[in-house]
Amino acid sequence: MRTKSFNEVIADYLKQRAAEDTLFAPKFTNPKKSIDECCRYILGEARKRGNEVVMTDNEVFGLAIHYYEEENIKVNARIGNSVKSRVVSSKQVPEAQTTKQLSIQYERPVFSTVKRGRGKREESKLQLSLFD
Questions:
Q1: Which end of the chain, N or C, is surrounded by fewer C-beta atoms within 10 Å?
Q2: Where in the sequence is the domain holding 69, given as residue range(s)?
Q3: What is the pLDDT of residues 58-80, one digit of tens each?
Q4: What percent of the chain has pLDDT over 70?
Q5: Tally of domains within the chain
Q6: pTM strictly above 0.85
């Protein structure tokens, strides 16, 4: 059985919502909005909360609805392109551990920096992540 992607889960929810809610339907069909941008918006909002974020399904779907209801939403273009993220749904977690939450984890890029001081050049060591 194939697992649905994050974008597919959001799209399915919003399509169902548009079918049931006549006030939301015209906002969902706005040509200036897209599912991909909506998902980038959700990931960007989660990223603002920290490196490893756990959100309830209602919070995630609420952000998706907010994206479509607001005309002037700023979406971080970097999210989804250069930042690696992993989304885990409560539907992918064993039943005993399920709490109806969505976990979004980010992999931070690690940069090597050069420190300069009084003629010395030192390279800092790469920082290891506890989450790898």
A1: N
A2: 6-107
A3: 999 999 999 999 988 888 766 55
A4: 57
A5: 1
A6: no
